[in-house]
UniProtKB/TrEMBL annotation, chain A:
Its main location: membrane. Belongs to the binding-protein-dependent transport system permease family. InterPro entries: MetI-like, MetI-like_sf. The chain crosses the membrane at residues 12-35, 80-100, 112-131, 143-164, 185-210, 264-283. The keyword Transport applies. This is Carbohydrate ABC transporter permease. PROSITE patterns: ABC_TM1 (PS50928). Keywords: Cell membrane, Membrane, Transmembrane, Transmembrane helix, Transport. It is a multi-pass membrane protein. One of its GO terms (biological process) is transmembrane transport. Gene3D superfamilies: MetI-like (1.10.3720.10).
TrEMBL record, chain B:
One of its GO terms (cellular component) is plasma membrane. This is Sugar ABC transporter permease. Residues 89-305 form the ABC transmembrane type-1 domain. Gene3D superfamilies: MetI-like. The lineage of its organism: Bacteria, Bacillati, Bacillota, Bacilli, Bacillales. CDD domains: TM_PBP2. Belongs to the binding-protein-dependent transport system permease family. The chain crosses the membrane at residues 30-56, 97-115, 127-148, 185-204, 225-246, 286-309. It comes from the Bacteria. It is found in: Cell membrane.
């Protein structure tokens, strides 16, 4: 390469790094902002607004929440239960059915495959689903209303089937020759062999359950059953009208300072979403695998 | 356990998998394995498909599906005769089209640049860009408010410091297509760039080597090798977008806008409209009708998209 080309190349690289540095800042900025707000003194927030550096540092918001952590802990408990139970059950029924349609010698393979994947093409929509859940399954105000709807997806089946289809048929044949039943083959041989796929898919499912809010929004009214994401929705909803209409509130003669404080709400967001923000990125590779199969091969 | 298995003669099938009749017992066992999923899908997918008849009834919770009276197409008329039908359909389709264009451009751009730098740095940037993928829309609603809050919001304070007037963001429908685009891109750029990056990495490096020998510049290589090689991937993603043209991202439109009624004109999509008709205004049957309209058009689009894929490349088609 000639001298000038090399120089141009180096300049180009510098520009690319500059671009990514700016992009990274833009992506990280909202996180920094929310952390800063949660650590800012309430009066300073009102005076100076939200900014990237706490105008007056204060941890009172965290102190406040952690002194009466009841609602937060209960929400964590609910979310952990939903995630754990949902992921285990989901993996179980997904892998069971995925195995059967990965077996070329299974006679009902084709009709079963059509039966599963037709649901990707047409759905009854939200209303029949809502009526089914509330009027027929009576799952209003039950954590199962959050666990059941996301338990089996054709995408999950597709991912598992893709993996299980690669297990050599001779292994299954030889187990059968040894007298093992299909169930025994599945639980003793196929499942252990599928650990990598189960881990990838399980992580993906767990992530979906952890961040679930839609079904919670539809079916959970009881305070005791609120999962983490719904807790955040509720805290916003009680205030979102008021906070954007401060003049209206003043005209009603309400005192703004009576409203729960800003920093506390942001601190709550961090306590709810923060821990997983540190854990999930370590598993990024698996997410990418799960998501690309889900979105591309779907 | 061993005993009971040994009793099943067909489980010890002859080593010829072709002799199909002999596999009967084995088929039954496999069917039993599939049973939980079969029941699940029947209840959650097929029963709800049957539930679309609600759209043709005046559904009342006290009378149930059977007891409620038939009203024919009244629910559909009620929806299509209002301006709402046009607004939510337009918004849903336009956001999908626009997001596809914006995402393709930005993600391609980012992916191409990622490929120009060392793997170490590229991986580092990818991790940062991927962070928002893990954040739920509920949390993003809070992040958006930190920027857009009328009194304390970062953007309004910034405007003030330049001597400009504050904006009531949650009351100004005109700005929301741009705001939602930013939110959407912020959350999804890491993933969509990664999809294209994976596509670029898979390109045979010998193409680039040959081009370099011939003295091609970086730009020429991108234009003459990278983009053409990614064309199939871009096409597939386009077809998938077409297939889901009638479905929007509920969380983005519902939470980021704070579900502010003044913004419905530019923010509302079919999904949020159905949700509100069901759970806020209690217009159950009309919501079902809109949902059925969405499903039917969606179905037609998927079939059409799949037909298009088959024309281009059979391997990528759904059936």
């Amino acid at each position: 390469m000639s001298e000038t080309a090399l120089k141009r190349n180096r300049f180009g690289n510098a520009m690319i790094h500059l671009f990514f540095a700016l992009l990274s800042i833009a992506i990280v900025a909202p996180f920094l902002l929310i952390v800063s707000v949660s650590l800012t003194d309430e009066k300073a927030l009102v005076e100076f607004g939200y900014s990237f550096f706490p105008s007056r540092f204060s941890i009172i918001a965290y102190d406040f929440i952690l002194r009466t952590p009841g609602a937060l802990l209960r929400a964590y408990g609910n979310t952990i239960f939903i995630t754990a139970a949902g992921t285990v059950l989901s993996l179980l029924i997904t892998s069971m059915v995925a195995y059967t349609i990965s077996r070329r010698d299974y006679r009902l393979r084709v009709p079963l495959t059509v039966y599963i994947f037709f649901t990707m093409l047409f759905s009854g929509g939200l209303v029949p689903f809502y009526i089914l859940m509330t009027q027929y399954l009576h799952l209003k105000n039950s954590l199962w209303a959050i666990i059941l709807p996301g338990m089996l997806s054709p995408f999950y089946v597709l991912i598992m089937k893709g993996f299980m289809g690669k297990i050599p048929h001779e292994l299954i044949e030889s187990a059968k020759v040894d007298g093992a039943s299909e169930w025994r083959i599945f639980f003793r041989m196929i499942l252990p062999l599928s650990t990598p796929a189960l881990a990838t898919l399980g992580l993906f499912i767990a992530f979906n359950y952890w961040n679930e809010w839609f079904n919670a929004l539809l079916f959970i009214d009881s305070d005791r059953l609120v999962p983490l994401q719904l807790l955040l929705v509720r805290i916003m909803n009680t205030l979102d009208f008021l906070r954007n209409n401060s003049e209206y509130i003043q005209s009603l003669g309400l005192d703004m300072s009576q409203l729960p404080n800003e920093s506390m709400r942001m601190a709550l967001v961090i306590l709810v979403a923060g821990p997983m923000m540190f854990i999930f990125p370590f598993f990024q590779k698996y997410f990418v695998q799960g998501m690309t199969v889900g979105s591309l091969k779907g | 356990m061993r005993h009971s298995e040994a009793v099943l003669p067909s489980a010890i099938a002859e080593d010829k998998p072709k002799s199909r009749k002999k596999l009967r017992g084995s088929d039954k066992e496999l069917s039993l394995l599939a049973l939980p999923a079969v029941i699940y899908i029947f209840v959650f997918s097929y029963l709800t498909m049957f539930g679309v008849i609600i759209a043709f009834k005046n559904y009342r919770y006290d009378k149930g599906i059977w007891g409620s009276e038939w009203v024919g197409l009244a629910n559909f008329k009620f929806f299509f005769l209002t301006e709402k039908a046009y607004i939510v359909t337009r918004n849903t389709v336009l956001y999908n089209v626009w997001f596809w264009i914006a995402t393709t451009f930005c993600a391609l751009f980012v992916a191409i640049l990622l490929n120009e730098i060392s793997r170490k740095w590229s991986k580092y940037y990818q991790t940062v860009m991927f962070l928002p993928t893990f954040v739920s829309w509920v949390v993003i609603m809070y992040l958006a408010q930190i920027f857009l809050h009328h009194d304390y919001g970062f953007v309004n304070r910034l405007l003030e410091s330049f001597g400009l007037n504050r904006v009531r963001w949650y009351l100004e429908p005109a700005d929301w297509p741009a705001i939602l685009t930013i939110a959407h891109m912020w959350k999804s750029i890491g993933f969509s760039a990664l999809v294209y990056y994976a596509g670029i990495v898979a390109i045979d490096p010998s193409y680039y080597e040959a081009a370099r020998m011939d003295g091609a510049t970086r730009f020429q290589m991108v234009r003459k090798i990278t983009i053409p090689m990614l064309a199939p991937l871009i096409t597939i993603l386009l077809i998938m977008t077409i297939g889901s043209m009638f479905r929007g991202d509920f969380g983005l439109h519902f939470f980021v806008s704070g579900n502010s009624p003044l913004l419905y004109n530019t923010v509302d999509i079919i999904d949020t409209f159905v949700y509100r008709a069901l759970s806020v205004s209690g217009d159950t049957s009309m919501a079902a009708a809109v949902g059925l309209y969405q499903s039917l058009v969606g179905f037609a689009l998927v079939v059409a998209a799949n037909y298009a894929v088959r024309k281009i490349n059979e391997e990528n088609s759904l059936w």
